[in-house]
Design brief:
By secondary structure, the chain is an all-alpha fold. The chain is built from 2 helices and no strands. It has one domain.
Amino acid sequence: MMFKNPHIRRPLATLLVALGAMMMFFATEAWVGVVLLVLGVTIEVIGIALRH
């Protein structure tokens, strides 16, 4: 794994989860919003996976 150091991995995971949540919050009803929603969910899943 690329990020084995927990001092780097945990803040990075928290940042990714927050970034994903922000993207989902700002998603609109247009097709651009759907792209933002999917991208936000993907970023959050990566952040959650880094935490474990």
